[in-house]
Amino acid sequence: MTDEKKPGFNTRSVWSGEEKKEGWERTTQVPVAHSVSYGYKDLDEWLDVALGKAEGHIYSRNTNPTVAVFEEKMRQLEGAEAATSFSTGMAAISNTLYSLLKPGDRVVSVKDTYGGTNEIFTRFLPRLNVDVELCPTTDQEAIEAAVAKGCNVLYLETPTNPTLKVVDIERLAKAGHDAGATVIVDNTFSTPINTNPLSLGADGVIHSATKYIGGHADALGGVLCGSEELVKGAYAYREINGATLHPMAAYLMIRGIKTLALRIERQSESAMKIARFLKAHPFIEDVYYPGLETHENHEIAKKQMRGFGGMMSFFLKGDFDNIRKFLPRLKYAHLAANLGPVETVAGPPRTTSHVEVSAEGRAAMGIPETLIRYSVGIEDIDDLIADLAQALEYTEKNG
Ligand SMILES: *Cc1c(COP(=O)(O)O)cnc(C)c1O
């Protein structure tokens, strides 16, 4: 199937996985199948489904009709051969990695991956005698050199948390494949609306669906999209490991996805305007947003992102006391450890994602103590800019 023949992202967000109506009792919306198991009238029919010779469901830890619609939506949005889901984003990441790796294998990744992913690399995989090399995130040559030394899995994330670094998926996927590696990309920040890593050469793409995919901060979930073989392997591991997506969460994801393209377009557009506003503000030291020409990876971002996304970070002049004054003054931002919902969310990595890292550690990672991660919501842009302006003015006066 070529790109030209695919329906657009808004059409896919709404219709994918819901084109077939038979068996749904004529409901126009996907019902939540809370059933744990599925009854069969005769043993031959049951056996055919159990052996995969006929379509159907046996037990909801394995497959479930509501969950299947969510998976099909994500499969079509990422343009993948197959997709499978998980209870959380971390379950998607860990199950995928554990299904691919065995003792003696080697993983190459970057230093700036999500905190939980970094824990898998530094704490859990070494225990299984898997060698992990974490490279400087924006040093493409260093990543290529590490991969060339031998690599079973090349694991990338872009843009990264919290400084929004962008890695070149196409270039590194090629390096990975030259070394015979499976290339996985965490696409949570960019979403399928802005980037499709599979079309840039990746073998698998992972989302924490908890964030933009669901979009309403009311359900946890994860997904892996990729080749039939890769997805089958991760599914087999998840089925036994048991990190299944709940049908109610799948329903909330399906409902969220209907507006995914609309939300991402709005959030990307607003984030660009806010980034420009903050960049020009005298009380702001710097802004990290891949859409700004001054961003160190802007050229790569331009090449592989259709929009630059709703995530940014910025830091104020002065010390951490200024953050204490600034953040509670924001009227339109939850101060919370989350990102991607319809509401704006703000928080300092110093007390959220990187609270366990020492001040020296944060400095080494290039995370200023006064950094604020800002997830732009769908509120009216004028309100968000006015809100930031008044909180900055207050902090400057009282700092
Ligand atoms: C939140 C997040 C995860 C983990 O997802 P959970 O659903 O919280 O388990 C993984 N990667 C990125 C980039 C994230 O932002």
Describe this structure in words.
This protein is an alpha/beta fold. It folds into 2 domains: 9-257, 3-Layer(aba) Sandwich (Aspartate Aminotransferase, domain 2), CATH 3.40.640; 260-398, Alpha-Beta Complex (Aspartate Aminotransferase, domain 1), CATH 3.90.1150.10. It contains 15 helices and 12 strands. It has helices spanning 9-15, 43-50, 65-78, 89-100, 115-127, 140-148, 169-178, 191-194, 228-241, 247-257, 260-279, 298-304, 320-329, 359-364, 381-398; strands spanning 82-86, 106-110, 131-135, 153-157, 182-186, 204-208, 222-226, 284-288, 311-316, 334-335, 345-347, 371-375. The strands form 2 sheets. Strands 1-7-6-5-4-2-3 form a 7-stranded mixed β-sheet, sandwiched between helices. Strands 8-9-12-11-10 form a 5-stranded mixed β-sheet, with helices on one face. Strand 5 (182-186), helix 8 and strand 6 (204-208) form a beta-alpha-beta unit. Helix 3 packs parallel to helix 10 (247-257), helix 6 (140-148) packs parallel to helix 7 and helix 13 packs across helix 15. The protein is globular, with a radius of gyration of 22 Å. The termini are far apart. The mean pLDDT is 94. The structure holds pyridoxal-5'-phosphate. Pyridoxal-5'-phosphate binds at residues 88-90, 114, 116, 157, 161, 186, 188-189, 208, 210-211, 220, 222. Pyridoxal-5'-phosphate binds next to helix 4.
Structure summarized in a few sentences:
The chain has helices at 9-15, 43-50, 65-78, 89-100, 115-127, 140-148, 169-178, 191-194, 228-241, 247-257, 260-279, 298-304, 320-329, 359-364, 381-398; strands at 82-86, 106-110, 131-135, 153-157, 182-186, 204-208, 222-226, 284-288, 311-316, 334-335, 345-347, 371-375.
